[in-house]
């Protein structure tokens, strides 16, 4: 939409002002990330431009220092386990929720979405008290369960959205051709919703991978994750290695985002829409 | 009807079609529900149950009735006007001696200390000295050991401790407390901090919500109007902060706002400032960072509503003689209200529970309710207070969530 030639001067002025405001807001959204990332290559531990020289020493530190590497290992392990649990439970639930005759859908949906809405600190403190009673505090089991709880809504939302475009007559056709429900699911439904499932699993993984607050409360020293290392580090003195770790995580998130977009396109192509 | 009844009683095989269909429908419903059941149970056990346990510990505390059973029982008939009689002191001495032996005196003194700050050491030292005493009478002896036992306040605490349920934590959370006669009175000035904290949380949330709406609305309008190829590209700019975790965005702001950080560096090299401004650990920094993090949450629902508004409405208004601003205000804007309501409500709900950003970017005066919940859990180890403050925050959130569900619906929550 360009400013049309018959617009009044006030309209034209307003049009350019609007464009300008949008430019500033979009800059505000992206600039903090883009300004901070190059500072992780600074050769000295300061946080201003111009940088005196470039260096990879902070990256070397996070990939060799034990605190960081064991944090990464724990984050990966917990992320994989939590997203596995969340994906299985979430996909099953999404399949049920997407059936046309599912009863009490609004109520069930609002219960399942609640972990996204309830303040994290409440989830964290409640989990802390509860796991303390059960003796699951400072265990991998406790942390994985807590992360899986936080990640399930993301899977449900993603897979339900994929199933919204799913043609249920395909399942009926499979059944009509004599396939048992389980065969129809694995041969017809699953391949079609798989891209959505993988997106959901990725989102679940990143929910767990970036989760900080619940980890601070439920994890012991053995289960220290990357965000926990970063948070405790920032409480004392921010160091460039924290920015280096943050940069790695941002790159991870961007790669995941692109993957999800590609999967979405593939899923639309598979189903022959658009 | 009679016919149907007859045929049903006659043979169960030949059911009427309606009943058969109902049965099939019910079976389908059950099967659909069975698929959701595992997740529902999982959420109930790992989420709803812990939340209810936390809500319960806001009002449930049986420390005193369990560990000081004789004293709390003896105080049942105490009227609170005078100091209790000798037999109550005798019960207290027995309870404290046992607590000392079983090493539970720490818990007792901590519990008393919540209501009477500074009393912990006196309870502990009384228990230690009592363990050396062989027999009564205890009243004079105890008052001699510590003046604490010569005042009615501590007896009020112990009497109220006879019940496993207490309103103390919730009352403290809204700046009330019990006096010696167990009447509810306003907390004295130095303890009355929580109404301020709630008000601050509310003010920060309102400011951030308003700021995100002000900044997000024009961008949503632009994205909805641009051709898909351009708007998809700009959408990445909006979605990136949405997908980068709160901790990472907060880290970026800590780096930017530092005394010797990028923003102060730029302002000083432009000679706008002569010395660094205090941006980190300030209210301004907290609101700025939170606005940045929440902006996509407000923007995206507005955008998706705007996408569904047909451009022909505004065109019709224009062709009927409305000016461009009048047409926008009277025809376009009202149709965006559902999006504005959804976006603002979501941002407001999420703002109420902010923890990481105020903790890392805010100063002591910018800590929100979540930070107090965390401090009471981790540092002060006062789970009752943590639960009470958490219960109030949770109740507020859930009420707003119900409003959100009525307005928008939980199934409309979108990811990316």
Task: Produce the secondary structure layout.
The complex is a heterodimer of chains A (274) and B (416).
Chain A: H1 9-39, H2 57-64, H3 66-97, H4 105-117, H5 120-134, H6 140-164, H7 169-176, H8 181-210, H9 213-218, H10 226-236, H11 240-270
Chain B: H1 2-10, H2 17-57, H3 63-67, H4 69-74, H5 86-101, H6 105-115, H7 119-130, H8 138-145, H9 152-160, H10 168-173, E1 176-178, E2 184-186, H11 194-225, H12 228-243, H13 246-257, H14 262-269, H15 283-307, H16 312-319, H17 324-352, H18 356-361, H19 369-378, H20 383-407
Antiparallel strand pairs in B: 1-2
Helix pairs in contact in B: 2-20, 5-7, 6-7, 11-12, 11-15, 11-17, 12-15, 13-15, 15-17, 16-17, 17-20, 19-20
What does this structure look like?
Helices cover 77% and strands 0% of the residues of chain A. Chain A is mostly helical and 274 residues long. Chain A has a single domain, classed as MetI-like (MetI-like fold). The radius of gyration of chain A is 24 Å and the shape is globular. Chain A starts with 8 loop residues before the first helix and ends with a helix. Chain B has two domains: 102 residues, no CATH class; 219 residues, MetI-like (MetI-like fold, Orthogonal Bundle), CATH 1.10.3720.10. Helices cover 71% and strands 1% of the residues of chain B. In chain B, a hairpin with a 5-residue loop joins β1 and β2. The N terminus of chain B is likely disordered. At the A-B interface, α1, α3, α4, α5 and α6 of A face α2, α11, α12, α13 and α15 of B.
């Amino acid at each position: 939409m360009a400013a049309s030639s018959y617009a009044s001067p006030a309209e034209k002025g307003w049009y350019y002002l609007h464009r300008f405001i949008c430019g500033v807001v979009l800059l505000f959204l992206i600039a903090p990330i883009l300004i901070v990332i190059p500072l992780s290559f600074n050769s000295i531990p300061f946080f201003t431009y111009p940088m005196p020289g470039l260096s990879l020493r902070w990256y070397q530190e996070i990939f060799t220092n034990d605190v960081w590497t064991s944090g990464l290992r724990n984050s990966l392990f917990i992320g994989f386990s939590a997203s596995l649990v969340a994906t299985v439970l979430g996909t099953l639930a999404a399949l049920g929720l997407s059936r046309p005759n599912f009863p009490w859908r609004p109520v069930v949906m609002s219960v399942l979405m609640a972990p996204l809405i309830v303040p994290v600190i409440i989830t964290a403190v409640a989990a802390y008290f509860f796991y303390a009673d059960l003796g699951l505090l400072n265990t991998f089991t406790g942390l994985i369960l807590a992360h899986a709880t936080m990640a399930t809504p993301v899977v449900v939302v993603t897979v339900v959205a994929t199933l919204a475009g799913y043609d249920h007559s395909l399942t009926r056709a499979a059944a009509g051709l004599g396939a048992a429900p389980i065969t129809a699911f694995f041969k017809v439904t699953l391949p079609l919703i798989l891209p959505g499932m993988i997106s959901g699993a990725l989102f679940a993984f990143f929910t767990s991978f970036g989760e900080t607050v619940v980890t601070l409360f439920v994890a012991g020293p053995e289960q220290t994750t990357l965000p926990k290392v970063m948070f405790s580090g920032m409480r004392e003195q921010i160091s460039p290695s924290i920015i280096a770790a943050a940069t790695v995580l941002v790159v991870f998130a961007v790669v995941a985002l692109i993957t999800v977009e590609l999967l979405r396109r593939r899923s639309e192509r598979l189903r022959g829409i658009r | 009807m009679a016919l149907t009844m007859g045929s049903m009683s006659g043979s169960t095989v030949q059911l009427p079609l309606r009943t058969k269909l109902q049965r099939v429908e019910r079976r389908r419903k059950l099967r659909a529900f069975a698929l959701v059941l595992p997740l529902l149970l999982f959420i109930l056990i790992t989420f709803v149950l812990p939340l209810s346990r936390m809500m319960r510990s806001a009002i449930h505390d049986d420390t005193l009735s369990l560990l000081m059973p004789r004293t709390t029982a003896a105080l049942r008939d105490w009227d609170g006007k005078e100091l209790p009689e000798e037999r109550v002191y005798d019960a207290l001495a027995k309870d404290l001696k046992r607590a000392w032996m079983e090493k539970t005196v720490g818990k007792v003194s901590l519990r008393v200390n919540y209501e009477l700050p500074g009393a912990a050491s006196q309870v502990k030292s009384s228990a230690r000295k009592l363990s050396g005493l062989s027999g009564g009478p205890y009243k004079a002896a105890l008052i001699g050991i510590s003046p604490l036992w010569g005042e009615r306040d501590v007896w009020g605490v112990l009497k109220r401790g006879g019940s496993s349920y207490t309103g103390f934590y919730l009352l403290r959370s809204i700046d009330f407390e019990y006096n010696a006669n167990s009447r509810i009175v306003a907390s004295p000035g130095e303890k009355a901090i929580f109404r301020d904290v709630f008000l601050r949380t509310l003010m920060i949330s309102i400011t951030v919500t308003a700021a995100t709406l002000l900044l997000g609305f024009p961008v949503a309008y632009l994205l909805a109007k641009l051709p898909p190829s351009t708007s998809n590209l700009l959408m990445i700019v909006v979605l990136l902060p949405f997908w980068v975790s709160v901790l990472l965005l907060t880290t970026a702001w800590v780096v930017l706002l530092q005394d010797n950080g990028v923003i102060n560096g730029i302002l000083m090299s432009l000679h706008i400032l002569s010395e660094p401004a205090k941006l980190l650990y300030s209210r301004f920094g907290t609101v700025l960072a939170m606005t940045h993090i929440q902006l996509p949450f407000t923007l995206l629902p507005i955008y998706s509503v705007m996408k569904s508004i047909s451009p022909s409405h505004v065109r019709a208004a224009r062709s009927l003689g409305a000016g461009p601003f009048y047409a926008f205000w009277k025809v376009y804007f009202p149709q965006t209200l559902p999006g504005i309501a959804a976006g603002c409500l979501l941002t407001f709900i999420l703002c109420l529970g902010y923890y990481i950003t105020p903790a890392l970017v805010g100063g002591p005066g910018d800590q929100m309710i979540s930070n107090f919940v965390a401090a009471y859990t981790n540092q002060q180890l006062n789970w009752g207070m943590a639960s009470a403050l958490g219960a109030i925050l949770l109740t507020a959130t859930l009420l707003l969530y119900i409003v959100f569900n009525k307005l928008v619906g939980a199934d409309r929550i979108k990811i990316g």
